[in-house]
Design a protein that fits this description.
The complex is a heterodimer of chains A (157) and B (729). Chain A has 157 residues and is an alpha+beta fold. Helices cover 34% and strands 13% of the residues of chain A. Chain A is built from five helices and five strands; from the N terminus they run ββαβββαααα. A five-stranded mixed sheet of chain A has the order 2-1-5-3-4, sandwiched between helices. In chain A, strand 1 (2-6) and strand 2 form a beta hairpin. Chain A starts with a strand and ends in a 6-residue tail after the last helix. The relative contact order of chain A is 0.16. In chain B, helix 17 (623-642) crosses helix 18. Chain B contains 18 helices and 28 strands. Chain B has three domains: 4-199, Aldehyde oxidase/xanthine dehydrogenase, molybdopterin binding domain (Aldehyde Oxidoreductase, domain 4, 2-Layer Sandwich), CATH 3.30.365.10; 223-286 and 346-422, Aldehyde Oxidoreductase, domain 4; 293-338 and 434-717, Aldehyde Oxidoreductase, domain 4 (2-Layer Sandwich), CATH 3.30.365.10. In chain B, strand 23 (579-588) and strand 24 (591-602) form a beta hairpin. In chain B, the strands form eight sheets. Chain B has a seven-stranded mixed sheet. Chain B is α+β, with helices and mostly antiparallel strands. The longest helix of chain B is centred in the first third of the chain and has 23 residues, at 120-142. The chains are: A alpha+beta (157), B alpha+beta (729). The interface between A and B is large, with 58 and 59 residues.
């Protein structure tokens, strides 16, 4: 049994404590936007925020998460209005197949929360998610565009 | 130039027959059973539905797996339709519907960079026919000649009377119009929707988590199956101890799928996987357990020297010219097994009963998926349905339908229950359909003038067709192994024509199951030849570009892209201190492509600074999607060059996840400049050809930096320190 705060709602899930958060979200909370790619914290497709920090949910057992910790998934990112990274991704047509992009967006938004003006080097070092379609160039451009927008909110239109 | 496409009458019978009927049988990929999309308005024809709210739905038959052809195809239809692009959306065609309507959408197979180049004519004709029917309907309503009507942004206007109406308003009447016998297609020079850098139509649901991939699909009472097949291909499942895991949480069944596969069925993936990890299984690996990378290499090396080879390209008498020549260069290259490793591992949901079988999942070959489903289920195809979904990357993996058969065999043991079969990443890595393994020996004779007088290229290794398409294989070989080396053809053509040439093949198959991996055989062929060409140029003190210019004198399109890439990297000027450059060109999948790379080596560490790519695809349907495909091709090709290798020990693949099968990430992504130089007059693909030039361009730059050639992939195995005594790998 696990009690988790997911996208602002407290939910009780009838699962084993060692179930990874990824599968709690996908199979029990019905939130399939968070993806399975490797199961060993290599690819980042499963990235979610836990108290604002990007975590690879495939290796985080639900038993290790307190109910007070705020879990945010792709479904909870930009609730109300799209997050600047989502908007930048749409404008730059970043996604190809899209499977890794939920994780990319969660990693990118967490990076910008910590470092609102990342350099190219910062982005290259911090975004370690795998994309097999090869969207990296646009991911980098998308983060920079989102950073610009966040720095000048009046330009968001 | 204005092309006139003659419409197949048969192709539009289905459309006429559907007159008055609602557009049932289609669903947006998001839809779950019972929520199938339907339209209040009947279709105009098979390609186009216009709703009363002016939404234009364009039907897409080819699979979308990230390559963007869905949007390009819609642009081609919309261009001829003269609709408002801002109102365009799409829906995916089901193979059963294509069969029922006598193949009105033609082939649904999506591979070989064929989606656009293989269907542009009839897709455009579909849009043009729909336009004609809409205009005819409006003109008939007004009682005016259709020829006096014009269309802009989906608004039909009759100039003389000043009347106008919209596509949405006449769509229903248009359905009753007789489909035109033939239509005139626009000159691409007049395009306003096609040819433009339109944003993709299929992005929004990828950014908020709402797109349902095969892995994500769910339906009431569904169970999840996690399979495990014998890790040694061709081995057997002897036994398993179901009772050891049957009491574990969520576990419902442990079952034998086939002679080599066991599956645990549970209520969720994690519970099924946990039980599978705990399941005692006995395998009989059989004779393949004795196979290793070393025994495979030995077999391929033997093939490099073998007699009675299979010839793919021949001119003059290369063996004689080589034995008479004073200056002969020799090299031996190799290319390893590679896994497709798409981000979405294999998954498919099947529900089987004694009289119906349905599959929800991704496939690149919807029609063959339907056949596989029906054959496995023991039902006629009419009793089966494949609900196609957008794919989380595929790169050729889902051209094979093995996983659909497996999911069906599992579902058949739980009649009436939908079962989602999900492979772990480990299973996906072990049970892939691998890029074939080959080796190549090359011998070239250069005369005193520095000209290539003779070339013998011997390829030895695995045939994909031998495993997947045996009817395409003769006693000695498989023509498709020569991709990019053929003397002639509009898909693949060798640009070089030395006076004496012999390119031949010795088939040496292995038990590791091969598959069509993005770029297929063009990948290794371009690497072998483009690296050897540059080796010979450097060894004879010639500029690699100047050397190729002489060899490409009769191949102006090959040369044009090479010149464009070289110019882009600044080939004629010196590189920055410590940086080195390499080139590569090839013609494949109908397009001419070239790459120029600039790298540096620091204490054995490679940095790829820049890559310039040039592509001549004939016509450009969406330039920014070409940019995305070309940049992505470098990521795919360079992942293989730097890290990609699946090795074999005791008969089994050793790499099981991304920790041992590393791929390129953002920190290593070079700056990519994409030059597109469409010369018109032909239609080439862009999803694959660039992969084949990325690796050799970089490898040539690395060899230039080292002052000695590196001939074996991946580079992670090579010693890139300048002082290294010999070549690694």
């Amino acid at each position: 049994m696990a009690r988790l705060t997911i996208n602002g709602s407290l939910v009780d899930l009838d699962i084993e404590d060692d179930t990874p958060l990824l599968w709690a979200l996908r199979d029990h909370a019905g939130l399939t936007g968070t993806k399975y790619g490797c199961g060993v914290a290599q690819c980042g497709a499963c990235t979610v925020h836990v108290d604002g920090v990007a975590m690879r949910s495939c290796v985080v057992p639900v038993g290790s998460i307190e109910e007070t910790e705020e879990i945010v998934t792709i479904e909870g990112l930009g609730q109300g209005a799209p997050h600047p990274v989502q908007q930048a991704w749409a404008e730059l047509d970043v996604a190809q197949c899209g499977y890794c992009q939920a994780g990319m967006l969660m990693a990118a938004s967490a990076l910008l929360a910590q470092n609102p003006t990342p350099s190219d080097e910062d982005i290259r070092a911090e975004i370690t998610n795998i994309c097999r379609c090869g969207t990296y160039g646009r991911v980098l451009a998308g983060i920079k565009l989102a950073a610009e927008r966040m720095a000048t909110p009046s330009d968001q239109g | 130039m204005t092309a006139t496409a003659r419409l197949s009458r048969r192709g539009f019978i289905g459309s006429a027959a559907a007159a008055g009927a609602f557009s049932f049988g289609f669903s947006f990929p998001l839809a779950t059973p019972g929520l199938a999309q339907s339209f209040e308005t009947p279709e105009v024809n098979a390609w186009v539905v216009v709703s009363r709210d002016e939404t234009v739905t364009i039907r897409i038959a080819r699979a979308e797996m990230g390559q963007g052809s869905l949007t390009g195809l819609a642009q081609l239809v919309a261009e001829e339709l003269d609709c408002d692009w801002e109102r365009v959306t799409f829906e995916l065609v089901k193979p059963s519907e294509n069969a029922r309507r006598d193949g009105v959408w033609r082939s649904m197979a999506t591979g070989g960079s064929q989606a656009i180049r293989g269907s542009h004519n009839y897709v455009r004709a579909g849009g043009a026919a729909a336009r004609k029917m809409l205009v005819n309907a409006a003109a008939a309503g007004w009682g005016v000649p259709a020829g006096e009507c014009t269309v802009a942004l989906g608004v039909i206007t009759h100039g003389p009377s000043g009347q106008s109406t919209t596509y949405g308003a006449v769509a229903e009447a248009a359905n009753a119009e007789t489909p035109p016998e033939d239509v005139t297609l626009k000159d691409p020079a007049d395009w306003t929707i096609a040819g433009q850098p339109k944003l993709r139509l299929d992005t929004a649901d990828k950014l908020d988590g709402s797109l349902v991939y095969g892995m994500d699909f769910t339906m009431p009472d569904m169970l999840v199956a996690v399979p495990k097949a014998c890790p040694v291909h061709g081995g057997r499942l002897v036994s398993f101890e179901a009772e050891a895991v049957q009491g574990m949480p969520g576990v419902r069944r442990v079952l034998r799928v086939d002679d080599e596969t066991v599956a645990v069925v549970a209520d969720t993936f994690w519970r099924a996987k946990t039980a599978m990890d705990a399941l005692p299984i006995e395998w009989d690996a059989g004779e393949n357990a004795a196979v290793s990378s070393e025994t495979i290499a030995a077999s391929l090396t033997e093939g490099l020297r073998a007699e009675t080879p299979y010839i793919g390209n021949q001119a003059g008498d290369a063996p004689a010219a080589l034995s008479d020549a004073e200056q002969v260069f020799e090299a031996e290259y190799s290319f390893p097994f590679l896994n497709h490793a798409p981000m979405e591992p294999i998954a498919a949901t099947v529900r089987w009963t004694t009289d119906r079988c349905e599959m929800w999942g991704p496939t690149q070959v919807a029609e063959s998926a339907l056949r596989t489903l029906a054959q496995t289920a023991g039902l006629p195809t009419e009793a089966c349905e494949v609900h196609v979904m957008r794919i989380g990357g595929s790169f050729g993996r889902r051209l094979m339908t093995d996983y659909i058969a497996m999911a069906t065999r599992i579902a058949m043991q739980l009649p009436g229950t939908p079962v989602k079969m999900m492979w772990t990443r480990e299973e996906d890595m072990l049970q892939g359909r691998f890029h074939p393994v080959t080796r190549c020996s090359l011998r070239g004779a250069i005369d005193e003038a520095g000209d290539l007088q003779a070339l013998h290229m011997r390829i030895s290794g695995q045939s994909i067709s031998y495993s997947l398409n045996p009817e395409g294989v003769t006693a000695n070989g498989d023509g498709s192994v020569f991709q990019g080396l053929e003397p002639d053809g509009d898909q693949f053509r060798l640009g070089y024509n030395p006076p004496n040439l012999l390119i031949d093949y010795a088939m040496r198959n292995t038990h590791i199951r091969p598959g069509w991996w993005r770029g297929v055989n063009l990948n290794q062929n371009a690497l072998y030849l483009e690296c050897f060409i540059e080796e010979m140029a450097r060894a004879t003190g010639q500029d690699p570009l100047a050397f190729r210019r002489k060899l490409l004198a009769n191949s102006p399109k090959h040369l044009a892209v090479l010149e464009a890439a070289a110019q882009g990297i600044g080939w004629n000027g010196p590189a920055q201190e410590g940086r080195h450059r390499g080139l590569a060109q090839v013609m494949g999948f109908g397009s001419y492509v070239a790459a120029a790379a600039e790298v540096s080596l620091q204490d054995g560490w490679l940095q790829i600074h820049r890559i310039v790519a040039a592509t001549d695809p004939g016509h450009v349907v969406n330039p920014q999607q070409i940019d995305a495909q070309v940049a992505g091709s470098f990521v795919y090709g360079l992942s293989a060059l730097l890290y990609g290798e699946c090795t074999v020990a005791d008969g089994r693949i050793q790499q099981e996840n991304f920790d041992t099968y590393n791929v390129l990430r953002l920190d290593e992504m070079p700056e990519v400049e994409v030059i597109t130089v469409p010369s018109g007059g032909f239609w080439g693909g862009v999803g694959e050809p660039t992969i084949a030039v990325g690796a050799p361009a970089v490898l040539n730059a690395v060899s230039a930096a080292l002052g000695r050639p590196v001939r074996h992939l991946p580079l992670v195995n090579a010693d890139l320190r300048p002082a290294a005594a010999g070549e690694a790998g």
